[in-house]
Write a structure and sequence with these properties.
By secondary structure, the protein is α/β, with parallel strands linked by helices. 40% of the residues lie in helices and 13% in strands. The strands form 2 sheets. The protein has a 5-stranded parallel beta sheet with strand order 7-6-5-8-9.
């Protein structure tokens, strides 16, 4: 393919489309996609956004189709819920909602029944096992809106915002400072396939489990990335590109202005809501050029739009493939 690309440059996009992974009918439960699948979703998100906002193109891939949001009782509406609802409407689809009690409901049977009237089922629940049960029982794609164990839509939406900022992903370093939570577990799944290195600093009482650490080792070896655990926020964030955290009350793990000053010159910041001042200094979170918190919310909408498109339809992309590997920027092997 490399030789063909040099001889006939205009064939580059066609070559990538020919190798496009087939995602129709797949589930998006914990973000455990291959590198080519993740890049395909991100590329589609960029393509849909650019053509919708710059060329006023409309897409109706969900016309005559419906998305059912299956939400466990007591689970709050989140930005992911909003992103999926607006994505379904943007694509011409309908949205229905149903609450369930995990103690009284067989989620697998419920998802199987909902498959008769749904094109996609989106699930928000406390336990990942319930989400997996829905995926096992459903005859249509199941998309995660988050559980207490994984939050892939939020994490991948943040990585789309990171891609938009840097124009590449491979060999970037993300520094996580804070307790282990659903977003971090999703980052463990997503970062290695996209070529992103990880540094993390978690409190001992809320650290990665031995099983999670073992899985991370396997993924980094498989995808030739790096990870390291650090005892302080200063060590973890030093020269890192992306500073990441979540709401917590560990004052000693606050990402400060000093940490940002000693990170990469072009550092960025991501965090889910709500924001806690014990997690990050106001100047870091409020930096309009570096903070990607608001941009990530917008990217989550386009990511949800891309997921519904990839899982339910055929979409011909016309936007150039993003430079995930940084090849057009000349990112060297030692960069990051």
């Amino acid at each position: 393919m490399c030789a063909s690309t040099r001889i006939v440059p205009h064939m580059t996009c066609i070559s990538f489309e020919f190798l496009r992974p087939e995602l129709r009918g797949r589930d998006f439960v914990n973000g455990d996609f291959t590198p080519s699948e993740l890049k395909s979703v991100l590329w589609t998100a960029v393509d849909l956004r650019d053509r919708s906002t710059q060329k006023n193109e409309n897409f109706s891939y969900m016309r005559g189709k419906s998305v059912t949001i299956l939400q466990e009782s007591g689970m709050p509406d989140t930005l992911s819920n909003v992103a999926l609802v607006t994505a379904a409407h943007r694509l011409g689809g309908n949205v229905a909602r149903m609450a369930f009690d995990s103690n009284k409901t067989d989620v697998s049977d419920l998802a199987n029944c909902l498959s008769e009237v749904s094109s996609v089922i989106a699930v928000s629940c406390r336990h990942q096992a319930a989400l997996q049960a829905a995926a096992d029982g459903a005859a249509v794609p199941v998309v995660s809106l988050g559980s207490e164990q994984h939050d892939p839509l939020t994490a991948l939406g943040e990585l789309l915002a990171v891609l938009e900022h840097y124009s590449y992903l491979k060999r970037l370093t993300l520094a996580w400072v804070g307790p282990c939570c659903a977003r971090l577990r999703s980052f463990l799944q997503l970062l290695p396939p996209l070529g992103i290195h990880l540094r993390y600093c978690c409190p001992q009482e809320e650290d990665l489990s031995p099983e999670e650490l073992g899985d991370l080792v396997g993924r980094t070896v498989q995808h030739h990335t790096q990870f390291s655990r650090h005892e302080s926020a200063a060590e973890a964030t030093y020269r890192a590109h992306v500073l990441a955290t979540t709401c917590h009350q560990y004052d000693q793990l606050q990402i400060t202005e000093k940490h940002a000053a000693e990170a990469d010159l072009d550092w960025t910041f991501v965090q889910d809501l709500p924001v806690s001042r014990s997690a990050v200094a106001a100047a870091v979170h409020g930096d309009r050029q570096r903070s990607l918190v608001a941009a990530s919310a917008g990217c989550r909408h386009w990511l949800a739009t891309a997921l519904l498109t990839e899982l339910c339809a055929e979409h011909e992309r016309r936007t150039d493939r993003p430079d995930f590997e940084g090849e057009r920027r000349g990112v060297g092997i030692g960069s990051g």
